[in-house]
Amino acid sequence: MLFAIYMLDKPDSAELRAQTGRFHAAYMAENEGGMRMGGPLYGDDHKTMIGSVVIKDFADRSAAEKFIANEPYNKAGLFETVLINPFGAFVDK
Question: Which is nearest to 84 in space by CA: 6, 27, 31?
Answer without folding.
Answer: 6
